[in-house]
Each structure stands twice: as C-alpha cells, then as structure tokens.
Amino acid sequence: MDLELRHLKTLRAIADAGSLTKAATSLGLAQPALSAQLKRIERVLGGALFERGRHGVRATPLGELVLERARVVLPAVTELQRDAVRFATGAGTGPDGGRFRLGATHGPLLGALVDRLAAAHPGAPVTTQTSWSERELAAGVVEGRLDYALIGTCGASAPPESEGLTWREIATDPVFVMLATGHPLAGREQVHLADLSGTAWTDVPGDGCFGDCFHAACARVGFTPARVYETDTASCVHLVQVGRAVGLCRATFPDTAGLVTRPLAGTPLSWRHLLGWHPAAPAAATGPAVLTQARAAHAEAAARSSGYAAWLASGMAAAGA
To answer: Residue 49: CB partners within 8 Å, gap ≥ 6?
Structure first.
C-alpha cells in the first residue's frame, strides 16, 4: 500500500479529535474500520503513530514527525487545487474578449455595474451570482468560481478573506432609515435613532457584524429594538409601506413609492462598499478598471436617490450631524 493524501487526512483527524472514537465519528467511519486503517498506515510508515491511554490517544515521536509534515503538505495541496481551478476557469477574464463573473450581495450597485461593464465591453459576457453571505462570495473568488466580489462591510470592519484577497473601497455611505410617507417623522430632514425606540425594524440578512452594530447603536441611545424582521428587499419595502416596521437601508436606496428615506442624526451606522479579487488570478489585471466602473455606478446610484442627494447638499455629511 502506498501512502495517500487521504491517509494524512485520517491521521490529522485522529490527532485533532484526540480519540479514535471521536475521529471515526467525524470521518463517518465505524471505529473498527478506522483502527484497521490506522494499522495499515502504521505498517507503511514503519511504526506506531499513536499511543492509546485512558484519556484517548497521543502521537508517538514518529507520529509527531508525520503530523508535522502533514500540516505542511495538506494545505499546500489544497492551495494547488484552488490555483488549478482558478487558472482553468479564469483564463481570458477581462475586456479582451473575456468575461466578468461577478458575485454580489443584494443592492442597487450590482445592476448598475453590470450595465456599465456590458456597455464598455460588449463582447465580454457578464454573469452574476447573488448571496446574502459575504463569506460565501469571498470563498467563490478564492476558489476561482468568481472573478470579483461586490460586498459591503459595517463601518471599518474587515472583509472576509482579508489576507488572501485584494479589497478596494468603492465608497462609504451612511445608513438611512426607510419610513412610510405617512409616518410622523417622515417630514424631518433627519431622524434621531432614539425617536424610533418603540418601533419594529426590518432589514436584509447578512453574516457580517451589522446586526450587532445596530443593536449597539440602539443601546447607546437607551433602548433595545423590540423586533427586527430579516427578509428580502421587496418584503422590507412592503413592511415599511404598510407601516409595520421602519427599515434600515443604504443611502443609495432608490426612491420608491409609499416611503421616504431619511438620514440618522449623527450617522451612527455606515456601510462600506468593497470590490475584491484574487491577486494571482487573471481578473487582477482588470481589477482597477472594474473598480473605476463600480465607483461610477455608485455615483450614479447616489445621484438617483433624492434623500442621499439632499443629505450631501445639506452639509450633514461633512458635519456628521
């Protein structure tokens, strides 16, 4: 029998679990089958790799040597597989007759970016994938399934895969509230968060820290949100229009019948739009050009939002009022 990668994975699982019983469960094997496999591996490597005791198993000196090498080999093979997939699926990306594979969270910027890329590069197919999960989109870029991730983070928090991907800021927006046109506060230029202490809220889901930051902002002004409905954008709009909830939205949210968007006094929450790509992928060559298009798309979205335009014109952006 030759030593294979699956054998190294088995040894690592045993070491991580600390017992054959737990390792067998994590590997989906019966314990006798795992024990038999371990004996075969030990015969190939020339000696015992683990000592059994009352409290589980412990690596022998030979086992420590093998595990030390496995900790180097296994990540290297995983990276090799990712690079191979990225090379095979990413070749030709860009404006020279290639393609643009965009992954994005839900929001107005994706459509505008697709429009701009399609107009600038009519021969290059543009495909999209949307997800509520920033981590899922970042993983898609790491694994070579996507060329670019268009995501957002709360305030200055780090994006996912911050060490493995190149991230560039498109813009940072204040977080606004959506109010029904008949809401008592709809006529104000800005709304104090404390004045909304008795209401229900609605927002789109995500796996970043925005929910925690929102609750912290509420706590700073003396209340805990009574209820938060996490749902898709259309449902958020409906809940606001019928007066069931107040919505949280990016300042670039487009004007919509039956509701208004208003800035929160003091800008307690902000949203940073980011574009990411893998520095070793073909997409890195056209990343700056895509970033320029994304920034132009954001500027267009900001101009279409009367609430955002009014906020910028009023000087509240500079004053932080």
So the answer is: 11, 38, 41, 42, 59, 60, 62, 63, 66
From the CB of residue 141, how many other CB atoms can be counted at a distance below 10 Å?
Answer: 26
Q: By the 8 A CB rule, do 223 and 194 touch?
A: yes
Burial of 36 (0-12, 13-18, 19+ CB in 10 A): exposed
Q: CA torsion angle for 147, 150, 154, 156 (degrees, to 10)?
A: 60
Strands (DSSP E) contained in the chain are 50-53, 56-59, 100-104, 126-130, 148-154, 166-180, 201-203, 228-230, 246-250, 259-263, 270-277
Integer Cα distance of 64 and 45 in angstroms: 12
Interval 94-110: pLDDT, tens: 544 468 999 999 877 89
**Dist. CA 261–CA 255, nearest whole Å:** 8
**CA R_g for the chain:** 26
Give the three-state DSSP class for 295: helix
Handedness of CA 285, 291, 96, 103 (dihedral sign): positive
pTM of the model: 0.69
Alpha-carbon distance of 174 to 256, in angstroms, equals 18
pLDDT over threshold 90, residue 303: no
pLDDT tens, 141-163? 998 999 999 999 998 888 988 88
